Amino acid sequence: MSATPHSSSAQAENADLPSDRKADKADLARNDRPENRLAVRLAFLVAGFGVACWAPLVPFARLRLGIDEGALGALLLCLGLGSVSAMVMAGLISARYGTKPLIIASGLGMALVLPLLSVLSTPLSLGLALAAFGACLGSLDVAMNVNAVEVEKQSGQPLMSGFHALYSVGGFAGAGFMTLLLSLEFEPLHATLLGAVLMAAAVVMAWPYLLITSSSSQGPLFVAPRGIVLLLAALAGVTFLVEGAILDWSALLMTSTGRVSTAQGGLGFMLFSVAMTVGRFTGDALVSRLGDRTTLVTGGLIGALGVAIVILAPVAAIAAVGFVMVGLGASNLVPVLFRRAGQQTAMPPAFAVAAVTTTGYAGVLLGPALIGFVAHGVGLSNAFWLLGGLLCLVPLCAGRVAR
């Protein structure tokens, strides 16, 4: 069968491979097992589901503890600090012992801690539980991405976008599941127990089929990011920063300019999220046709153009198109960056994926604060121009990343 014009870029990348690399890819493809794909998809689903189950519990936690917004913000920071701290160690554990034990332990850990978040009644105990929950989430995030990179290598075709789409699906499912149960007047403890059972069941289902990744007891305890990994981590931080800023500031941008009412402020992020999920479900086929470099170039440019449309749109309908473009453009940037982190040879893949994950998560945490600081000085609309400029770094660096 003749190749289609759309697949020329990806074929060109493969054509440049040495004969031994082509043979390696053929050998890996023969070892591809569909159950390995299903298992890592379940891991992504559990991660998204678990963290989304916590979001509807935040008002209950504030009421139970009787604290103000400042104290609540400090508690929420415990979740992020726990995640980032664990991500650094997760690279070491994955390199030493493989990713399968870490995925199982961290997935079950999230299920065990989730019900505690609905009953602990002191700031100290809830803060410690949130840090533990975040540590399990961060460890799972690193381990499942390392495992996904290896599964993708064995398949010989792009799969990372589809894996990350399952995280988004888990987020929708977790938030919807918890909101539904709480709306039906379930006690928070009972609702979280049901959610924990579903999470644990998914981990147990994945357990026998998770790919056993390579491990070595002779490796270093820590490897500082270097070479191409520094660039990959920086671009991941930029992409996640944009996502965090859209989450926290898009509603205020839309309402402060009078384009929508306060009640409709969340529509922008909703459209962004739906577009990102759709983009990731279709991303693997797109990347296999275009190749990594073209995907990064087009995705970054579409996302940056979408940000510009959101800022300049005179009415809500046009701004909605901009949010969709940002979601579609950004949807496959992170999966490509994770793939490249697993393929590079500057440092062990487990440490590289941990570095990219940690920097990306830091972008989510720091992005909203950065936008708030800039907005205080120059206005929120001008601060959003910063997001568009940062996204332009992705196509500018695409050649180096995909080299």
Features:
about 400 residues; Growth Hormone, Chain: A; 18 helices; mainly alpha
Would you give an account of this structure?
This protein is an all-alpha fold and 403 residues long. It has two domains: 34-209, MFS general substrate transporter like domains (Growth Hormone, Chain: A), CATH 1.20.1250; 228-401, Growth Hormone, Chain: A, CATH 1.20.1250.20. It is built from 18 helices and no strands. It has helices at residues 8-15, 19-30, 34-54, 58-65, 69-97, 100-113, 123-155, 160-183, 188-206, 228-256, 267-281, 283-290, 292-312, 316-330, 333-343, 349-378, 380-391, 393-401. Helix 3 (34-54) runs antiparallel to helix 7 and helix 16 (349-378) runs antiparallel to helix 17 (380-391). The longest helix is centred in the middle third of the chain and has 33 residues, at 123-155. The protein is globular. The protein starts with 7 loop residues before the first helix and ends with a helix.
| CA-atom Rg in angstroms | 21 Å
* Poorly predicted ranges: 1-24
| CATH C-level class of the largest domain | Mainly Alpha
Shape: globular
Number of helices: 18
Helix-strand pattern:
HHHHHHHHHHHHHHHHHH
Strand content: under 5%
Mean pLDDT: 85
Describe, in short, the structure shown.
The chain is mainly α and 403 residues long. It has 18 helices and no strands.
Please outline the helices and strands.
Elements: H1 8-15, H2 19-30, H3 34-54, H4 58-65, H5 69-97, H6 100-113, H7 123-155, H8 160-183, H9 188-206, H10 228-256, H11 267-281, H12 283-290, H13 292-312, H14 316-330, H15 333-343, H16 349-378, H17 380-391, H18 393-401
Helix pairs in contact: 1-12, 3-6, 3-7, 3-8, 3-9, 5-7, 5-16, 6-7, 6-9, 7-15, 7-16, 8-9, 8-11, 8-15, 10-11, 10-15, 10-16, 10-17, 10-18, 11-14, 12-13, 13-14, 13-17, 13-18, 15-16, 16-17
